[in-house]
Amino acid sequence: MAYKVASQSPAKLILLGEHFVVHGSRAVSAALDVFVEGVLIDDGMGNIEISYLDHVERYDISRDNVVTRFVKFLSQEYDVDSTPSLKIRFNFPTSAGLGSSASLASLLTKLFHKMYRGEEPQKEVIYNFGSKFEEYVHGNPSGIDLSTVVEGGVILYRRGEGVLDRIDSLDLGDSHIVVIDSGIRRSTGKLVANVTYNLHSLPEDIRKDVIDLVDSIVSYGWSSIKEGDSQSLANAIKSNHYLLKYIGVYKPKLDEIVMGFMDLGGIAAKVTGAGGGGCIYGLADKDIVRDIESYFRGRGYWVYTPKIYF
User: If residue 12 lies in a helix (H) or strand (E), which one and from where to where?
Assistant: First the structure.
């Protein structure tokens, strides 16, 4: 009889500072109460099944991709003679700015550690192994995605320093976060590289000013979050939105979603994550959240009103 273990890891949402966090700005991110779930089966078969929202992939360990490479890496690290099988289910969109690769890296590390060490891994273990998977996928990750799914709650983060501050919840009074998936898929690594190119096309003093400006917006937004001031946070979101447009992470469809959200009475909205596609998130008063959900779902979009996972 094959032994099984199960675990899960949350999605993440960058509230402020994406892209610029790669270049020295701080950023704010939150873990969401929607998960990637998985089961590891110690059967030596090496079969992998990944269920997404709209399709299922099945293959074995002989296929070469980022998942099989990481599974082989973990098998070696945990002295596994015959590769186990995995069943994984994403309950949120992937390649959409919600941290699916970091969530998967965390999940797989948890599963291997539980099976072959008999306990939950320490955070340092997930950081150590998970960062390798993030490098496979993104090339030059800031580390914020993995830190968010490992730490939970809402975090203030700077690359090279890690989590600077953290709170368990997001109390914005009558305002709620709404996440809308554009349905456009893209490569985070390529978008990060494009933004880096765009930023480095600017004169050095202007580039520094832009990054410093984003850092100031993040600082203002973090203070707004801790004070529960949704209107001030909305101002920070709007400012960040315009700077992300300036460095080229929007496409017409993303602009349409932001404009549609605002036309329905939303307070503020912006892309989250790498942009180029993926998800938009916005703030809206509780009285109109249902109308926003109905509007976008009626047009075929995945819509989610999350809570913070901690």
Answer: strand 3-16
DSSP helix, strand, coil percent of the chain (3-state; round to 5): 45, 25, 30
- The CATH code of domain 175-304 reads 3.30.70.890
Interval 73-100: pLDDT, tens: 999 999 999 999 999 999 999 999 999 9
Asked if 289 and 275 touch (Cβ cutoff 8 Å), the reply is no
Hey, where are the domains in the chain? 3-167, 175-304
Q: What is the DSSP letter of 22?
A: G
Provide the 3-class DSSP secondary structure of residue 49: strand
At residue 307, the 3 state secondary structure works out as: coil
Residues sharing a CB contact under 8 Å with residue 106, sequence separation 6 or more, in sequence order: 9, 126, 130, 146, 149, 150
Cα(127)–Cα(113) distance, integer angstroms: 13
pTM score of the predicted model? 0.93
CATH number for region 3-167: 3.30.230.10
- 268 vs 290: CA distance, rounded Å: 16
What is the side-by-side order of every strand in the sheet holding 302-304? 268-271, 279-285, 175-181, 302-304
Cβ partners under 8 Å of residue 13, min gap 6? 29, 30, 32, 97, 98, 99, 177, 179, 272, 279, 281, 306
Give the span between the Cα atoms of 212 and 193, in whole angstroms: 20
pLDDT by residue (tens digit) across 245-258?
888 888 889 999 99
